Amino acid sequence: MKNYLQKFLEYLEIEKGRSPRTVENYAFFLKRFLDFSQVSSPTSITPQLIRRYKLFLNRYRDKNQQPLEKTTQNHHLIALRSFLRYLAQQEELNVLPPDRVELIAEGDREVKVLEESALERFLATPDLKTAQGVRDRAILELLFSTGLRVSELVGLDRSDLNLKTREISVLGKGRKLRVVFVSDAAAAALEKYLAARSDEFKPLFIRFRGGNPVDPEGWDARLTVRSVQKIVKKYARLAGIAIDPSPHTLRHTFATDLLRRGADIRAVQELLGHANIATTQIYTHITNPQLKEVHRKYHRGNKAA
User: Fold this and answer.
1) Which of 55-59, 230-234, 293-297 has the lowest mean pLDDT?
2) Domain check: are 190 and 243 in the same one?
3) Is residue 210 domain-shared with residue 241, that is, in the same domain?
4) Rounded to whole angstroms, how far apart are CA atoms 41 and 92?
5) Is residue 52 part of a domain?
6) How large is the average pLDDT for residues 130-140?
7) I need a labelling partner for 246 at 20 to 30 A (CA). Which of 98, 121, 130, 253 fits?
8) Closest among 13, 256, 5, 235 to 137, alpha carbons compared
9) Cβ atoms within 10 A of the Cβ of 191, count?
10) Residue 218 lies in a domain
């Protein structure tokens, strides 16, 4: 099984062009399944085994006794589906059909957004008298300006940014290239941040602490996803934000802000880099608060109509 798994991961990397992060995630999810199941052959994967595995995922608790979210459980199952599909199509094995691995019902997805007053307070929190504060302000403004995923943000290099045209080329999920646009506020924050840097390092966002980079181009100075997550939580706490936001909260806020102001949902889909418009439609129930009032006022079944 380890040999099949290794070949599958190489297939994802070479044939399907998946990012190193995606391959790493698939490896983690599938290793958990193989450790649980102890199967010696792909043909030993049965519906009964899948049922026990789903029960295991649902009952799993981490070192802090926290359960796996339904979305995370489904990520495990999606990885297993992909593995089974590879075994059937590429290795020509008679394995359990992938569609026999049913996903877990997640219910409505919770979407956290920052309301206007909280957003303004949040973006204004970094101390612009310090180099770190200038950098952090640029990060927060850019997240809200573009709707970037945090992994996309930390992967940016200086060369990806064009402040003259206010555009950034982003390599998103599935290694798909898209262009996002920088607002006036974000452009001003970025200009201030870049003017404060005296280095020639390639990454757009770098750390200012933790020792000197070894690489002359500063690749090892690049901020990590975890670093940006900590930055967002730090300023949310300082600004008194109650909803415990993450970088993805700014992505949600970017999308809802555009839709509330009348942007077309398919345009927002392109800006977010969603492959399927159904993913973008999670925002529609919070971006049309006036619809309830329209129904109440005009529907003939209501007394006020």
Assistant:
1) 293-297
2) yes
3) yes
4) 14
5) yes
6) 96
7) 130
8) 235
9) 12
10) yes
Identify whether the C-beta of residue 89 lies closer than 8 Å to the C-beta of residue 225: no
Q: Round the average pLDDT of the chain to a whole number and report it.
A: 87
Last residue of a domain, one of 49, 73, 100: 100
**152-200 pLDDT, tens digit each:** 999 999 999 999 999 998 887 777 788 899 999 999 999 999 999 988 8
> Are 268 and 121 contained in the same domain?
yes
Domain count, the chain: 2
What distance in Å separates the CA atoms of residue 80 and residue 98, rounded to the nearest whole number? Answer: 8
Query: Which residues have a catalytic role annotated?
Result: 149, 173, 248, 251, 274, 283
Residue at 300 is within a domain: no
Structural domain including 142 reads 116-290
pLDDT digits (tens, 9 = 90+) for 243-292: 888 999 999 999 888 888 888 888 888 888 887 887 777 776 665 655 55
Asked whether residue 105 is assigned to any structural domain, the reply reads no
Nearest-angstrom CA–CA distance, 83 and 104:
18
Say what the pLDDT of residue 109 is. Answer: 60
Question: pLDDT band at 242, cuts 50/70/90?
Answer: confident
Residue 144: Cβ-neighbour burial (10 angstroms; 0-12, 13-18, 19+):
buried
Instruction: Identify the CATH number of the domain in which residue 126 sits.
Output: 1.10.443.10
**Dihedral pair phi/psi, residue 127, rounded to 5°:** -80, 110
Whether pTM > 0.90 for this model: the answer is no
* Residue 118: C-alpha distances to residues 113, 125, 179, 251, 255 (Å): 10, 11, 28, 15, 16
Please give the Cα distance from 168 to 77 (Å, whole number): 34
User: Is the domain of 124 the same as that of 96?
Assistant: no
